[in-house]
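Folded chain entry —
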Amino acid sequence: MVRPLPPGAHYPRKIGVVMAGNIPLVGFHDALCVLLSGHILLAKLSSEDTALMTWILEELTRLEPRFTDHIQLVPRLNAADAFIATGSDNTARYFEYYFGKKPNIIRRNRTSLAVLTGRETNHDLGLLGKIFFATTAWAAAT
């Protein structure tokens, strides 16, 4: 369930992001969204993706120095005002227990498949896009 920031919330907020490590850089999208929205990223890196994610965030601050004061790599997310976490259904229950009292986005397992043959029309691909984005929006809202 998505819990939005309360009305009139003051910015920037400290957003804790639990970064999964099952796919390299899988947490980068969340990190970038936090930064582009003007908030402070508190990143709890996965032990499986520490070196690459650290390098990417350092490169990002080299390209955009204004992000330097908005990125913190932390061992714990105690100081966060809100949370973003992605994990298995079992991990999501853990996240809800620990992060449920503050605004959060907690993603669970989602699996889908589309078999493309190369004969799809633009209309077919447009419908596939609508299904994908509707499912993604629904998953973020639950």
Observations:
- The first helix runs from residue 28 to 36.
